[in-house]
Design a protein that fits this description.
The structure is a single chain. This protein is of the alpha+beta class and 265 residues long. The chain has two domains: 157 residues, 2-Layer Sandwich (Alpha-Beta Plaits), CATH 3.30.70.100; 105 residues, Alpha-Beta Plaits (2-Layer Sandwich). Helices cover 29% and strands 28% of the residues. A six-stranded antiparallel beta sheet has the order 4-1-3-2-10-11. Strands 5, 6, 7, 8 and 9 form a five-stranded antiparallel beta sheet that branches. The protein starts with a strand and ends in a 25-residue tail after the last helix.
């Protein structure tokens, strides 16, 4: 079974303190991360607010396979987990999965790329297999062109098709989607690359994709969490903030439930 990366878009209320584990919202978020990283098949997670829209939290979870995540969703423990998470959100989450190549998508790791460009391309749901293959090949060419030009601050690229069809206004319904994550030393490094001849001479590989209907681009500055449970750690803290101290182990919530995922058949 091929590995996949879950993408979760989590809307936050204004003034959310999920970034601060000393607050109630921050503790719920840490509980949620601990739960996910305790599930069989969850390998690592990356999370960040969108730089352009800080009320949108993005969570990426690398799974050994899509079936591993589906098994978690089908388990009786999933309902309480979602209810706990929803208590700090400002609406329902959007979930889907991406088959990144190469996997894992290293450009999401802040130890590799402090800033990540997240590009999503939308196409009609009727897009043919041949056109999908053309998009994939063009994105590989784009990645090679960027790597060959050796722009300052470039830290790698991964891309792949979204497993599910996604709603998109410009498509007018369900859409096929391709996501690329491109790592940079900083957002400024990405913006400076956009002014270069290398960018201008190769961006057609994206903009002229067959039947492209919409593109969305955001930046994230991810924290990376690795498992398994018991060894869970914020990788970013080790490298960039060694004074952060030891992370909290799985604990019991105020409602009596545990942050540790245990299968209930």
């Amino acid at each position: 079974m091929a590995p996949v990366t879950e993408v979760a878009l989590l809307p936050l209320p204004a003034g959310s303190t999920v970034d601060d584990p000393s607050t109630d919202a921050g503790q719920v978020w840490q509980d949620s991360l601990n739960t996910v990283m305790g599930v069989d098949g969850a390998e690592r997670a990356y999370w960040s607010r969108e730089v352009e829209n800080p009320t949108m939290l993005r969570l990426f979870v690398d799974w050994k396979s899509l079936q591993h995540h589906k098994t978690f969703i089908a388990d009786k423990a999933y309902g309480p987990f979602v209810k706990h998470l929803l208590s700090i959100l400002d609406g329902g989450p959007q979930l889907y999965h991406v088959e990144f190549q190469p996997h894992p998508p290293k450009p999401l790791s802040q130890t590799i790329a402090p800033a990540t460009e997240v590009l999503t391309m939308f196409f009609p749901a009727s897009l043919s297999t041949a056109d999908q293959e053309s998009v994939t090949e063009n994105m590989k060419k784009l990645g090679s062109a960027i790597e060959d030009s050796k722009p300052e601050g470039f830290r790698g690229i991964s891309g792949g098709w979204v497993v599910e069809e996604l709603d998109n206004e410009k498509v007018g319904g369900k859409a096929k989607a391709f996501m690329a994550v491109i790592g940079w030393a900083s957002i400024d490094a990405h913006m400076q690359f956009r002014e270069t001849d290398e960018f201008k001479s190769n961006i057609y590989l994206v903009r002229d994709a067959p039947h492209l209907k919409d593109m969305k681009m955001v930046h994230v500055e991810s924290k990376e969490v690795q498992g398994p449970l018991g060894g869970t750690q914020i990788v970013q803290d080790e490298v960039l903030n060694p004074q952060a101290g030891e992370k909290k182990p799985p604990s019991t919530r105020s409602d009596g439930t545990s942050t540790k995922f245990e299968r209930r058949d």
